[in-house]
Amino acid sequence: MSKENEPIKVDKELDLSNAGRGVWLVKVPKYMANKWEKAPGNIEVGKLKISKQVGQKAQVSLTLSDAVINIDPSEEIPRDHRLDVSVVTKQTLGVFSHSVPTAASTTREDAVPEPEKLFMEGRIVQKLECRPYADNCYMKMKLESIRKASQPARQVKSLEKIVHNFKPVSDHKHNIEDKERKKAEGKKSRDDKNAVLDMLFNAFEKHQYYNIKDLVKITRQPISYLKEILKEVCDYNMKNPHKNMWELKKEYRHYKDDDKKEEDKEASDSDSD
Phi/psi of residue 48, each to 5°? Predict the structure, then answer.
């Protein structure tokens, strides 16, 4: 690989001036995070209160500001919350930030591009989980969320006017009929061989030649089973004019024309005698 195609490596400095500062990692409810995300950056989002009594753990509470509550008045959320505190002992967690050069400094021709800077804002010493109090506002919000979750994604609506939209057909009529026919053929049970032979002989008394489809309709037998019987008593024509058709073997034929020929033959033999 040529040096021109090698990726350019940029060294980034890490500012550790705040590495010794202890910070909190706070987990807040989703509804609070959505409110804070919609809030502008120049307003107060809430007040944190820490109260400590002798011999007891410190009690931490959070009260949201009116500005946050009124961002979306139709969506009512609890105002007061408690924060459950847990100490981080077996983990080393940190908070980092970075600064990206502004567009104005990079577009100037004579300006030297500023490198991206990384900062360590502090080490996490405590984890806090923000929980609302089970007051009327919270219970009302939970009931509303359960109601919305229980609503089906698709609803049936009655149409007052005729809709002239042609929707695609999942399966066409002839395909459905073909599937049903194949399904019915697959369920055909095998009859006794002698019964099938009787049906075949009765059919061949009416016509001398049949194709396999007609014989399947007449006997209502599975095609594989029917072919086994046909090979025993019938011949399959491979040439015209009766190509791909079945006829009885000579030893099973019994037609009027054949009887007349036999009678003529016997009479001629008696005359010769």
Answer: -105, 130
| pTM for the predicted model, two decimal places | 0.44
* Distance from C-alpha of 130 to C-alpha of 123, rounded to nearest angstrom: 20
- Among the listed residues 78, 60, 191, the one whose alpha carbon sits nearest the alpha carbon of residue 134: 78
C-alpha pair distances (Å), 153 with each of 23, 158, 167: 43, 17, 21
Contact yes or no for 119/100 (Cβ under 8 A): no
Q: What are the backbone dihedrals phi and psi of residue 233, each rounded to the nearest 5 degrees, phi first?
A: -115, -5
Q: pLDDT band for position 20 (50/70/90)?
A: confident
H or E stretch covering 124: strand 117-132
The C-alpha atoms of residue 246 and residue 242 are separated, in whole angstroms, by 8
- Cβ atoms < 10 Å from Cβ of 54: 4
Structure tokens at 75: 């969506």
Q: Is residue 50 within 8 Å of 24, Cβ to Cβ? A: no
